[in-house]
Amino acid sequence: MNDGLVRLGVVGCGGFGLFALQQFTQIPGVTLVGMAGTHRPAALAAAARFGVENVDDLGELLRRNDVDLVYIATPPFLHYPQALAALEAGKHVIVEKPLAMTVAQADELVAVARRRDRLLVANLMQRYNPLFGAVRQLVETRVLGEVLHGTFENYASDENLPADHWFWDRTKSGGIFIEHGVHFFDLFTGWLGAGRVEAAQVGVRPGTAIEEQVHAAVRHGDALVNIYHGFHQAGRMDRQELRLVFERGDVSLFDWVPTRARIHALVDERQTRELCDLFPASRLDVAAAYGGTDRACRGRGKAIDAYQIVDLSFGDGQAKSPLYCQLLRSMMADQVAWIRDRTHQRVVTETNGRDSLATACDADNLAHRARATR
């Protein structure tokens, strides 16, 4: 890779793999050279789209000298063995979430990657969302005071998840916390610091063995965060909402890749300006205004100088798919920059994949212990 070209091989390219590859290969100097691991129609379509051969054997792909970086887009139970094989073959690795199925597996992968000076990262692209950065600044600057509580509610579709789909097989997916929840454990950690799982539950669809709902309470410092995932909705009713509650207001994000934000807050003049700076091009509606002695109020035992209650709306009209494409490009550009220059400070590293998996495993273990004692 002395010429700066990053030659990409993909393993297990399904529908999402093709979607991601069309973004990854837009990064200057990144080119797809090979595929392995599937004869599914989506993979054959990807091979036709990029004009590359879809080989059968992962080992053949890993033995190729013209493959620098391997993107693994297979079901979770294959992530560890395939990532380990790629690292031991001297390849850099990007793997779809989760990084592995267990913390021990993740720790081994991290150790091998560091020993061999190879890239290893799970595709936790949510941290590249501009809304992630804006909310982190909202937390860090304490414009609305301290964070008190958080929630994430994911009412997801199961319309394309028949009963025999690997998603429902815990030996293949790890369960909802591990297969899907890692994104959101990582988001809250990015805002609030490391969390500790305090309680967790799992819900089974009546008359089946399908675990369709999970819930966890995670403590981040003094803030308690409730996370719910349920896969039980018609596709047209798929919806998500994330909320952080502060001492003087709250921020809500919508969609599982958040495209929109709403802030409801009690603020003075300076705080109004700071909110508008954090969320530029927002619509500001004033719900109530105060003057004179009416400005003085109290909350959480503290004196508050209240100029107005505002409702700030950010991202109205933003479509999810173009934003998703942007996040995938940002993730790949960040990782490729590190491959080319080890001094580059990445937004997402191997630590994110490992730590989000550890939280997910803690939640999953606690939920199943609770279910076993019922």
Can you describe what's shown?
- The protein is an alpha/beta fold and 374 residues long.
- It folds into 2 domains: 6-124 and 323-347, Rossmann fold (3-Layer(aba) Sandwich), CATH 3.40.50; 127-319, Dihydrodipicolinate Reductase, domain 2 (2-Layer Sandwich).
- It is built from 11 helices and 17 strands.
- The chain has helices spanning 15-24, 41-50, 58-63, 79-88, 103-116, 130-141, 170-173, 176-192, 269-278, 320-340, 350-372, and strands at 6-11, 30-36, 54-55, 69-72, 92-95, 120-122, 147-157, 196-204, 211-220, 223-233, 239-246, 249-254, 260-267, 283-289, 296-299, 302-305, 308-314.
- A 9-stranded mixed beta sheet has the order 8-9-10-7-11-12-13-17-14.
- It starts with 5 loop residues before the first strand and ends with a helix.
The helix count comes to 11
CATH 4th-level superfamily of the largest domain: Dihydrodipicolinate Reductase, domain 2
Assign the structural class, choosing from mainly alpha, mainly beta, alpha/beta, alpha+beta, or little secondary structure: alpha/beta
- Contiguous low-pLDDT stretches (5 residues minimum) are none
The figure for the number of domains is 2
Tertiary shape? globular
* Major sheet details: 9 strands, mixed
**Distance between the amino and carboxyl termini:** 56 Å
- What is the averaged pLDDT score? 94
User: How big a fraction of the residues is strand?
Assistant: 25-35%
The quaternary state of the protein chains shown equals single chain
In the CATH hierarchy, the third-tier topology of the largest domain is known as: Dihydrodipicolinate Reductase, domain 2
Order of helices and strands: EHEHEHEHEHEHEHHEEEEEEHEEEEHH
How are the strands of the largest sheet arranged? 8-9-10-7-11-12-13-17-14
How many E strands?
17
